[in-house]
Structure formats: C-alpha cells, structure tokens
Design brief:
By secondary structure, this protein is mainly β. The chain is 8% helix and 44% strand. A hairpin with a 2-residue loop joins β10 (179-185) and β11. The chain has a 6-stranded antiparallel barrel. The chain is built from 1 helix and 14 strands. It folds into 2 domains: 3-108, no CATH class; 111-229, no CATH class.
C-alpha cells in the first residue's frame, strides 16, 4: 500500500473519530489579504476535535501555548485554512498536515492589521522621514493570529530598565499562516505570496501597536518577533 492511499485511510479514520468526539466547525479558506473569515470564504462545515499535542487527551493545554493537534478529515483541508468552532467562536488556523502525521493547528486570540511604511518618494533630503498613516501600505486586514507575550523576554528587543520605575515595551510572538494576496495581470487576478519584513507595523483589535523585529517563515507559517510601540 503506497503512502497516498495509507494517508487517505488515516484521514478518513480521523474524520470518523471527529464525528464521534468533535465539535462542529466552519472551515474557511482565505481568498485574499482582507478578512479571511468573510462568509464567502467558508467552504465546509465539519466536525473536529482539538487536543494539547496529546492524542490520548490526557492533559490540558499549558498556559501561553497556542499549538494543538486537530482530529478531522484532512482530505478536505490544507495549511492556511481556518477552523471556527460554531458554539464558542474559538478559531484555529491549520499550520501543518504532513502525510502520516497529526494535523497541527494554532489557536488564535486576536485580529491583526499589517502595514508597511512607504519609502520617501523623492531622492535626497525629505522634509519628513517619520511614519504617518497616509504613508502606510496595507498588507493584510482583520486577520486572525496568535499574539502572545514572549516568555522570559520582556526586554529582549529593547534596552534593560535601569530604575525601578522604568518600563520597557513588551516583546510578543505573533503566529499566522503563510499569507497570499492577489495581483492583477493581463489574464486576470492571480495569487501571489505576501512577504513580511523587519520594521513592518502591526495593529491588533485591542488597538495595540507593534513593530516587527524579526520575521521568520517556515513550513508552519509566519512567526514574528515584535516589540510593542507605546507612543
């Protein structure tokens, strides 16, 4: 029996298990850089169960750990899809579903907006070199992501406090799937990948502002190390 056939049988078996123990979820597939959970992006209603990287369901998730395993029929999904539990609104994105391995998902807790500061339009000396809202190029809007404080790294991206009353901007880790946008060509819209960079700006639904210090893309999606901007 080849790997493809065996993996299909595993997916079917996981789907049967999900129908027994899972919750009802809506599956969404982003179609562009704006609002991946828009109604038109929903493509399936399915059962899914989630565990804290423990297929035997013997333990709960650790504090600040957004990574889970999902039990579902992976024949219908792919990395980058979102799963939204209908009863509670809890939201995950699929980070990985490699053959013969558990489906890895990340639970999200915030919505984010990503912008890139535009470069000065004129060469040489410009009157103003700071960032204002009119100079920001939008990258993605209203995107579910995991935004959690970096453990033990409150000052890793900034200077160490010297006085008891001093405070430094917090360091955060932002997880989100690989991002796709759409560009228009002679033959119509075509899919293109969005690359995130150092100094990109992030805003979340709590109106917090962040600046990206490091952007890392892997098979699991984007991992951003970001510093909160307090003023």
């Amino acid at each position: 029996m080849n790997e493809t056939r065996f993996n299909d049988l595993i997916a079917r078996g996981m789907g049967v298990a999900a129908r027994k123990i899972g919750v009802t979820c809506d599956a969404y597939r982003p179609s562009g850089p704006i609002d991946p959970l828009a109604p038109e992006n929903r493509f399936l209603r399915m059962q899914a169960a989630f565990n804290a990287e423990d297929p035997k369901f013997f333990r709960a998730a650790k504090y600040g750990e957004p990574v889970y395993y999902a039990i579902l029929d992976a024949a219908y999904t792919k990395p980058g899809d979102y799963l939204v539990e209908r009863a509670t609104g809890r939201t995950w994105f699929i980070a990985s579903q490699l053959p013969l391995l558990p489906v890895v998902v990340v639970q999200t807790n915030r919505r984010i907006w990503l912008h890139r500061p535009a470069r000065p339009k004129l060469p040489g000396v410009n009157f103003y070199s700071g960032v204002n809202r009119e100079m920001l190029m939008p990258l993605v809007s209203n995107w579910p992501a995991s935004v959690l404080a970096e453990r033990g790294g409150g000052n890793r991206l900034g200077a160490r406090s010297e006085l008891p009353g001093d405070t430094q901007p917090g360091s955060f880790i932002i997880l989100l799937p690989a991002l796709s946008g759409f560009s228009r060509g002679k033959t119509g819209p075509s899919e293109s990948h969005i690359t995130l960079k150092t100094d990109d700006l992030v805003r979340d639904d709590l109106e917090r502002q962040f600046i990206v210090a490091t952007a890392e893309l892997s098979e699991l999606g984007w991992r951003l190390f970001a510093r909160e901007v307090t003023s």
